[in-house]
Amino acid sequence: MAPTEATILATFLLPPAPLPAIISLKAFTELFPRSQQSSPGIRALYRDLQHQRSRLTDTVGRSIVTETKRGYAQRRAVVRERRQAEKEGQDDEIDVENTLFGHSSNLPTSKPHTLASILPVMEMAAKDLEDEISRLEEDSETLLEDMQSTVGGLSDLRYGRLANGDLLEEVLNGLKRLEDSCKTV
Question: Would you tell me how many other CB atoms lie within 10 Å of the CB of residue 9?
Answer without folding.
Answer: 19
